[in-house]
Amino acid sequence: MSFAELAKTIKSIKFGVLSPDEIRKMSVAVITTADTYDEDGMPIPSGLMDPRLGTIEPGQRCKTCGNRVGQCPGHFGHIELARPVIHVGFAKLIYTLLRATCWNCGRLLLTDQEFERYKRLLKVYAERWPHLIRKLNEDVLKKAMKVAECPRCGQPQYKIRFEKPTSYYEEREEGDYRLSPIEVRARLERIPDDDLRLIGINPEAARPEWMVLTVLPVPPISVRPSITLESGVRSEDDLTHKLVDIIRINERLRENIEAGAPQLIIEDLWELLQYHVTTYFDNETSGIPPARHRSGRPLRTLAQRLKGKEGRFRSNLSGKRVDFSARTVISPDPNISMNEVGVPIEVAKILTVPERVNKFNIQELRELVIRGPFEHPGANYVIRPDGRRIDLRFPKDRTAIAESLDVGYIVERHIRDGDVVLFNRQPSLHRMSIMAHRVKVLPYKTFRLNLCVCPPYNADFDGDEMNLHVPQSEEARAEAQVLMLVQEQILSPRYGGPIMGAIQDYISGAFMLTYKSTLLTREEVAHLLAAANYKGEIPKPAIVKPMELWTGKQIVSLFFPRGLNYSLKASFCLKCSECMKEDCPHDSYVVIRQGKLLAGVLDKKSIGAGQPESVLHRIIKDHGTDAGRYFIDYAFKLFLTHIDGRGFTIGLDELEIPEEAKVRIKEILKEAERKVRELIESYHRGELEALPGRTLEETLEMQIMQVLAEARDRAGDVATQYLGIKNSALIMARTGARGNVLNLAQMMACVGQQSIRGERIVRGYINRTLPHFKPGDLGAGARGFVYSCYRDGLSPIEFFFHAMGGREGLVDTAVRTSQSGYMQRRLINALLDVRVEYDGTVRTAGGFIIQFKYGEDGVDPAKSDHGKAVNVDKIIEKVLGEVIEK
Amino acid sequence: MTLGLKAIRKHLSKYKDKLPKNVLDELEEKLSKLDISEKECKRIIEEIHRAYSRALVEPGEAVGTVAAQSIGEPGTQMTLRTFHYAGVRELNVTLGLPRLIEIVDARRSPSTPMMTIYLDEDHRYDKEKAREVAKKIETITVENVSRSVEVDFLTSSIVVVLDEKVLRDKDISPENVAKALEKQKFGDVQLEGDMVIRITAQTSDVNALQKLREKVMSLKLRGIKGINRVVIQRERDEYVLYTDGSNLKGVFDAVERGELKGVDVSRVMSNNIHEIAEVLGIEAARAAIIQEAMKVLEEQGLDVDTRHVMLVADLMTCTGRVRQIGRHGVSGEKESVLARAAFEVTVKHLLEASARGEEDPLQGVTENVIVGQPIPLGTGLVELFVTAAPGGKRK
Q1: For chain B, which terminus, N or C, has the lower number of CB atoms within 10 Å?
Q2: The whole model's pTM is what?
Q3: Where does B62-107+273-333 sit in CATH, by number?
Q4: Are A109 and A144 a contacting pair, CB within 8 Å?
Q5: What's the pLDDT at B391?
Q6: Cα(B334)–Cα(A805) distance, rounded to whole angstroms?
């Protein structure tokens, strides 16, 4: 659809209450028969399925407008109610109106002066502070409702009681008197327009007497379609059922009135009619039992259709279903660009892009049409300039159609390599959850994506599925390509740093390639560079004799932008008390000068995903997103190729530590146990000093936890000491590829304290966790401390405690997702209209100013340098550097 | 040639309205340390200005949505539990997702109200002096200082047995307690022995006596209402008081009356946003929302730009009251009927709108999504088109 077609715009929508006249005017049929179809299955005239209400059967023409199914919008009918009934939705409003106005003269219960004063105020407010009008209306009502005698006609006012859902009683001296809807309506009719305006009711849109229904509109059939089951049995919509009830009772009421039946019977029927109309509007009205289907299921009537998550508003109006979309399982592919998405051929044959025929592409499109819908680069439809669609699935001879193609035709061709599509993974928590990718049609049945886009989508490959959408207009494609393409989204607006980057094996690989002891032969270098599609010259080898060898740093340097200068501490850094910077003995201080990696290893801190102020960040910030994409697509290939060739595994023997270490760990744990015992003893002896503001028990718990945590850490330290730098587990932990040192400690030394709600495990039996312990045992083992490590295995009791701790984690996650989901929904809903205007102010949809300058400095966080407007150092360096070069 | 500070300031002054203050300050500081020529200085400032202009938000940018996402998305990564406050082991403070929800909800009072009280120059370096101040702030009730408070039904009196140790610790004499009780006119107060106080009530009704006992127990002897506990904590070179319970007005009033000395009033902080709004005004509340939200996010190790939090805080406070993010606040006060109906309590909003005869001008996002039109954000905001005639000429 182009913008020209969108020229039809809706400027505004007015809300109001239908008057009986309007209902009759828009109605095409009076509905008087409660039945729907006769024996032959034909709709009964002036029944609920009256053909004048519109058609739902294909092929049939509408009796009112003559259109077929798709075009006929449906037409309203109406029911003349024998007696008026209250509209439940307005029952409360009617109550306040009855109380605020005089039953005799219909005026608001205000004196002339008050009335004039409020009227003046209203006029002023309307001009100046429109948002205060609501408050004024409430004040007027509050004031009027307190008056006991009409200041206009002097009539005393009875107190009115409202009984949910739809009855009103006057509390008279002689007893309560029930106001019938007729009387209510009569009173509401008497309220003058001017008085209504004061209390916020617009008499042009909603006269209060219209809130007492005398005529009920019957919605068209398309609103309440019946479904035919396979057995041929017709099943009517809930609304139709309800309308049947209403008509039946209405007719009975009318007959009874005409026959002059006793008042009691009429009142009963009237009450029943009121009930049916009430439940027709809202079947969850408090105070009355919900109307039920024959099966006992409550009916889904008008209010239920609109309400809630599955209601019309949230599921059909705020969110809509779309065509040109696909969904399947995702799997990784390190060989495609981060901008690409691998699309299965089968999907590519169904999703299409409309392409207009012109003299440049006619030949190509003809070929596509000839190839047809069943072969990949083909086409599914041809649209002639007169709007006729030709389905290419059926004609035998597609060549003829291809021949007939001419400039101005539109061919819906299969998507193919290079097309722009949108790719999405739920939950769509931020804008990087939907990004534009370039199509790469691939065999097999999964969507393929580059691993570096996993972090923004929060995707993994344990069965995740993702959605793909194909933009159909040129405008949409252009926007997707310019604004939403993956490389344009590398920098997150959340913190102004790259959200994409290396993960897991990329980091291990980068570390191993750039580590100082890595030396590569000519063959290896060639292999690496070929994998990364490097087209330049091989640098001079770092070592010439006895054989030519290159360092990994040399190879990586080939992929940095030429002018890159940077230094930072690597994740591998041991955080020595005094940093030796460039001379770091652990090769943990990264130095890049003029695009050459001089010192340090590349790891999570420099190329990892979600790391602000990293090398990757600098490349993107200073050299543009294209440079960033190039680095991620090609340099990262080096890391993978290297780790591929070298091999990288982790196994049980990786976690083996010498006997000596085990003894030391055991000693540490024993020592901790002794300390815990001492603490408990001193507690029993009453010698323990309570911390200020804590009870003795809390103090004891805190101290025990501290001792045990310390012991676990020390044990872990001992264990990791014995690991060499070549240890895979340690490499992963220290480079930030996966896991941390704590995980290692748990695997090799001691799992440590299991906790529930941040406390040691206390639940279970009375005064003890399990029957294996004595009641009142406060020792480490009895309260969920796991002495063993994962490698050696846990004892049954430890295992049980561990499972308890693990379960808490699961529950926690489940609760958290729902809570944070709701918070996010509210945040989005409150803020979604807020935007920056051309004058630089931040305003809501209505034009209210929220901020005079966005973020106080007008800087877009996505374009900022980790939150800072400009990186002053960088620019000074740049300017001075230029001068030096000159 | 080295440029003096004066020359640098002169160059910078030209950009006074074009660059934000923090950038100007940083530039001044950094340039003055450098050995540069006038030309270079000019170049640098120009370059900075160019970089700054490039970093500006574009008109139509959906900053609201981005802010909401930036705060909401990390919510999934937050912990649910209440943690000890970093450094103060003695106090439990709600943090993580529950606290963030609390802030966004603009609850009347936080689940763990807390104050941070800084001390003035005379008191902040000495722990003893800090303790003196703390003593005056902490609420002490009769219950706190007594070993038992019992009802003697025989004589229809209440017997308070005081705890000598606590009394000494808190520096209160039994006479003080008796006097405080007398003031309340509970009945005839008598000091029996050193540590026993007997209050003879006028009534002998059992229920009334029980109620009276409660009243006696909760009688405040000293301190500021609502502050249950004060913890002294060393923070860098000074001592800071953290309180369990919050009463800004109480502290300010006490200082004003001269009862409380040593408090640096300008640095008293509460985590109760409504209280701040009432006592210090809406701007302070805005600052408090930003500070509290950023604190939660930072504590969880989540990196979120302040601008997002600022926008949320501004939206919450822009009417002069603290509004909730949700149906009773920001969302419920939207101009558009459809936007309100699409959020929560759909039917109520539709009925109300029809009675008032409201008109939805379709200016927001939700409304336009509902009617199927381009939304007025970003590229959808542009309303003016230039139609190019064939051949590239503008019509």
Answers
A1: C
A2: 0.88
A3: 1.10.1790
A4: yes
A5: 63
A6: 45
